[in-house]
Design brief:
By secondary structure, this protein is mainly alpha-helical. 76% of the residues lie in helices and 0% in strands. The protein has a single domain, classed as Amino acid/polyamine transporter I. α2 packs parallel to α12, α5 packs across α11 and α7 crosses α15. The relative contact order is 0.21.
């Protein structure tokens, strides 16, 4: 007897197909609103009001283009970014690129542990307890392959960032003013403003995000002929993450900037959610901060280690033991250990660490963007899937913009005043 198969409606099958490929894009989107991301957007909104909304619109376009390039390279080549850099540019360029990646990723890992410390201190728990405990716990989960069991829980905690969207709906800001700020650029050469611009760029378009995206697509074995759904995931993830980012800026501007509070601590940042959560604002804020930090701590050091070992041809992978891949395990543990020690230095300002690390990301980002642009435009690497002209214009323009803003920061800092 032939068993009759149930045929699902076409629209339902399409939904299941989309859900089956969702992953790298949404995880990267969650990472956009991690601890340093929340700190940076809160600082920007509370200090400069709606002034950074135009920048978020601009870098949303930039992130979509950059992340799509990385995903497409992963699908076409089946290789990671570091592997391609070594193959096409040699050891010297690879070493410089990996140094930039290590500095940027180390800074962001430090920022994630700072987020864990800040979340704990909101409830009077010392960083000397929460940070080492989180480091040991997440390292064990990752190294023993148990991380996948808690990843969904952490992503759910990250969804607390949606509370900013709900808060904005409740407080009803002046949407005309919001829209004007989103389309009319404002720039100031004051060093503090320029540094905030770099931090906002660096927490949105991250060096580690590029490497993670390409490696994820390559590891999933996505074929370029079936790349459409993966592309949709990447584009949607990048755009959605920045919608939430914009709402964090709007929320902090409408609740804190208007009363003259410029965020310098997690406790002050939590106040932005008071219209929604009232006395539970600290709990809601700390849950999001902790979930996002733990998610990033689980992924970031490991992705850095994979990229490094891939670049230099060293043995790598959790399927190998420490004797087979000593550099892989040593680098992974070293990144976590150095980050933990840095955060535990007495008097270390947690919130400042979180957003300053993102400025470093932006300063180093053009190095990697130039290499990625060269790779994605080489027919020998990409075949017929090289960049289109508008993609090169947008990605190239972003690279030039970040470089110019960095120069402005250096000049204005040296002169000690606006130029």
């Amino acid at each position: 007897m032939v068993e009759k198969k149930i045929q699902l409606p076409f629209w339902l099958r399409r939904i299941f197909m989309v859900l089956a490929v969702l992953g790298p894009g949404l995880i990267t989107a969650s990472a956009d609103n991690d601890a340093p991301g929340i700190a940076t957007y809160s600082m920007a909104g509370s200090t400069y009001g709606y002034s950074f909304l135009w920048l978020i619109v601009l870098i949303t376009v930039g992130e979509v283009v950059v992340q799509e390039m990385a995903a497409r390279m992963g699908a076409v080549t089946g290789k990671g970014t570091a592997d391609l850099i070594r193959e096409r540019f040699g050891v010297k360029v690879t070493s410089f690129a990996m140094l930039c990646l290590l500095i940027a990723n180390m800074g962001t890992t430090v920022a994630q542990f700072a987020g864990i410390a800040a979340a704990g201190e909101l409830f009077g728990i010392s960083r000397y307890i929460t940070v080492p405990l989180a480091a040991v716990l997440m390292a064990l989960l990752v190294l023993r392959g148990s991380y996948r069991h808690v990843e969904k829980v952490l992503i759910v905690l990250c969804l607390s960032a949606l509370s900013y969207v709900v808060t904005v709906v409740l407080i009803r800001p002046d949407w005309g003013e919001v829209l004007r700020a989103a389309v009319v650029p404002r720039f100031d050469t004051d060093p503090a403003f320029v540094l905030a611009v770099l931090a906002t760029i660096g927490t949105t378009i991250t060096p580690w995000g590029i490497f993670y995206m390409q490696a994820s697509v390559a590891d999933k074995g996505v074929e370029i002929e079936k790349y459409g759904l993966t592309k949709a995931d990447v584009v949607f993830g990048a755009a959605w993450g920045n919608v939430v980012s914009a709402f964090i800026v709007i929320c902090t501007a409408a609740t804190l900037y208007v009363v003259g509070i410029s965020v310098e601590s997690a406790e002050q940042a939590a106040m932005a959610l008071a219209p929604l959560a009232g006395d539970s604002a600290r709990l809601l804020f700390s849950a999001g901060l902790l979930g996002a930090s733990l998610l990033a701590v689980s992924v970031l050091p490991l992705s850095t280690t994979y990229a490094f070992c891939e670049a230099f041809g060293w043995e790598r992978g959790l399927n190998r033991n420490a004797k087979e891949a000593p550099i892989f395990y040593g680098l992974y543990i070293g990144i976590i250990l150095v980050s933990v020690i840095f955060v535990l230095i007495p008097g270390m300002p947690l919130f400042q660490i979180m957003w300053l690390s993102q400025a470093v990301n932006a300063i180093l980002l053009p190095v990697l963007l130039v290499l990625v642009l060269r790779l994605v435009n080489q027919p020998v690497v990409m075949g017929k899937w090289v960049n289109k002209r508008f993609q090169n214009i947008l990605a190239g323009g972003l690279t030039v913009l970040i470089s110019l803003v960095t120069v402005v920061l250096l000049v204005s800092t040296v002169l000690g005043h606006s130029v």
